[in-house]
């Protein structure tokens, strides 16, 4: 489909669009007016991970097209816990923990969005309105617009019940609170668009309907992205070593660069479109690379994504570290590292560096002959590595290298 607005043209050409509530209406509005749109993020940890990156990029595309993005932090909804995709209830966090997480997460958004200027992004916290709602007031004002029949059809509820896993009454209310967010953002900021992942479609439609029924006199819109999976069918960002965090204190720029450098051949073009600002003509050229030359496209992807999050200097340093390590066989100070305090077990080193998720996995890798210490194979899973003077280099396969510091 051809669009008139730069917003939907960008989203379409870069393959962000999965569903829209009214494509023609949104396109017409975006072509003539500035739209305020939002994406919601829960604050369950001090950092978001790369699985949230496509939603962050949606807000970036919205701003690049001349519109106004709102980052909605779920300081209130995090107190409840989103049941989507979960078999068990989330651990409830204190208000202080949630606010500390929001402060930590904000640093990442400042890399992707401009919080100054005519269409400056804003970050808001739904705790500002949700925590002040009286229970009876909420029941009377919002309750009549929801039916239990409809709520039971939502995937977040159906999946939990189908698996015979408990769904608390607290969690059951999550969809009501999320819908109420759209109503508040429309009233406070003139927000007319919610964006999110495909698993949020029902919640987005709920928010549109609730806001309309509670007095919105203009049309509201929703857009979702497809579930981003890798070529082998796995969910984006899931690795053996755990989550690929966006905050530097939880994942080094070098490890972040390596995550993108290790992208499967079949995913490179898709990821270049979704996660970089490289123009489509250049991506088209990179898509024609074959054989060993496709590594140039992977390096371009790693450099662009790392520069966007951590800065140009960090991307260049990571690329140079990788070149020295893989092409020249040398180690570099920019490699991920772990303190040994004079000695460390090979299992603790492998898990501490994030190369393996558990001691069991580390033992299997050693048995497979995939682990090397200073380029010499390690065969004993009980090995205690003495580190004195210079750092030692520990490697897992050909692509993961780390330093054991004295």
From TrEMBL:
<keyword id="KW-0963">Cytoplasm</keyword>
<dbReference type="Pfam" id="PF00579">
    <property type="entry name" value="tRNA-synt_1b"/>
</dbReference>
<feature type="binding site">
    <location>
        <position position="38"/>
    </location>
    <ligand>
        <name>L-tyrosine</name>
    </ligand>
</feature>
<feature type="short sequence motif" description="'HIGH' region">
    <location>
        <begin position="43"/>
        <end position="52"/>
    </location>
</feature>
<comment type="similarity">
    <text>Belongs to the class-I aminoacyl-tRNA synthetase family. TyrS type 1 subfamily.</text>
</comment>
<comment type="function">
    <text>Catalyzes the attachment of tyrosine to tRNA(Tyr) in a two-step reaction: tyrosine is first activated by ATP to form Tyr-AMP and then transferred to the acceptor end of tRNA(Tyr).</text>
</comment>
<dbReference type="InterPro" id="IPR024088">
    <property type="entry name" value="Tyr-tRNA-ligase_bac-type"/>
</dbReference>
<dbReference type="InterPro" id="IPR002307">
    <property type="entry name" value="Tyr-tRNA-ligase"/>
</dbReference>
<feature type="binding site">
    <location>
        <position position="178"/>
    </location>
    <ligand>
        <name>L-tyrosine</name>
    </ligand>
</feature>
<keyword id="KW-0547">Nucleotide-binding</keyword>
<dbReference type="InterPro" id="IPR002305">
    <property type="entry name" value="aa-tRNA-synth_Ic"/>
</dbReference>
<comment type="subunit">
    <text>Homodimer.</text>
</comment>
<protein>
    <recommendedName>
        <fullName>Tyrosine--tRNA ligase</fullName>
        <ecNumber>6.1.1.1</ecNumber>
    </recommendedName>
</protein>
<keyword id="KW-0067">ATP-binding</keyword>
<keyword id="KW-0030">Aminoacyl-tRNA synthetase</keyword>
<feature type="binding site">
    <location>
        <position position="174"/>
    </location>
    <ligand>
        <name>L-tyrosine</name>
    </ligand>
</feature>
<dbReference type="InterPro" id="IPR024107">
    <property type="entry name" value="Tyr-tRNA-ligase_bac_1"/>
</dbReference>
<keyword id="KW-0648">Protein biosynthesis</keyword>
<keyword id="KW-0436">Ligase</keyword>
<feature type="short sequence motif" description="'KMSKS' region">
    <location>
        <begin position="235"/>
        <end position="239"/>
    </location>
</feature>
<keyword id="KW-0694">RNA-binding</keyword>
<dbReference type="GO" id="GO:0004831">
    <property type="term" value="F:tyrosine-tRNA ligase activity"/>
</dbReference>
<feature type="binding site">
    <location>
        <position position="238"/>
    </location>
    <ligand>
        <name>ATP</name>
    </ligand>
</feature>
């Amino acid at each position: 489909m051809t669009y008139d607005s730069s917003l939907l043209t960008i989203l379409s050409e870069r393959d962000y669009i999965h569903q829209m509530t009214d494509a023609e209406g949104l396109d017409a509005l975006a072509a003539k007016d500035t739209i305020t749109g939002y994406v919601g993020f829960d604050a369950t940890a001090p950092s978001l991970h790369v699985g949230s990156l496509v939603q962050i990029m949606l807000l970036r595309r919205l701003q690049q097209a001349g519109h106004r993005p709102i980052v909605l932090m779920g300081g209130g909804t995090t107190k409840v816990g989103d049941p989507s995709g979960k078999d068990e209830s989330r651990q409830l966090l204190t208000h202080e923990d949630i606010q500390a997480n929001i402060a930590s997460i904000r640093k990442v958004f400042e890399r992707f969005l401009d919080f100054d200027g005519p269409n400056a992004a804003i970050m808001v916290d739904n705790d500002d309105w949700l925590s002040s709602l009286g229970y009876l007031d909420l029941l009377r004002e919002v309750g009549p617009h929801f039916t239990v029949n409809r709520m039971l059809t939502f995937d977040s509820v159906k999946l939990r019940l189908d698996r015979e896993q408990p769904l608390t009454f607290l969690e059951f209310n999550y969809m009501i609170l999320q819908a109420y967010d759209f109503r508040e953002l429309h009233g406070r900021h003139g927000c007319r668009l919610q964006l999110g992942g495909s698993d949020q479609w029902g919640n987005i439609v709920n928010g549109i309907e609730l806001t309309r029924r509670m007095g919105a006199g203009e049309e509201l819109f929703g857009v979702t992205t497809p579930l981003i999976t890798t070529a082998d069918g796995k969910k984006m960002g899931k690795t053996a070593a755990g989550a690929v965090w966006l905050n530097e204190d939880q994942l080094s720029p070098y490890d972040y660069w390596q995550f993108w450098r290790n992208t499967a051949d079949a995913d490179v073009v898709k990821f270049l479109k979704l996660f970089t600002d490289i123009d489509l003509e250049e991506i088209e050229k990179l898509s024609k690379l074959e054989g060993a030359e496709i590594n140039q496209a992977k390096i371009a992807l790693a450099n662009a994504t790392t520069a966007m999050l951590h800065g140009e200097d960090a991307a260049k340093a990571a690329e140079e570290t990788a070149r020295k390590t893989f092409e020249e066989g040398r180690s570099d100070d920019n490699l991920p590292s772990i303190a040994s305090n004079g000695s460390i077990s090979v299992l603790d080193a492998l898990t501490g560096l994030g190369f393996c998720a558990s001691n069991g996995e580390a033992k299997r890798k050693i048995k497979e002959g995939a682990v090397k210490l200073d380029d010499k194979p390690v065969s004993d899973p009980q090995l205690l590595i003495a580190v004195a003077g210079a750092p030692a280099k520990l490697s897992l396969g050909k692509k993961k290298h780390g330093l054991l510091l004295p």
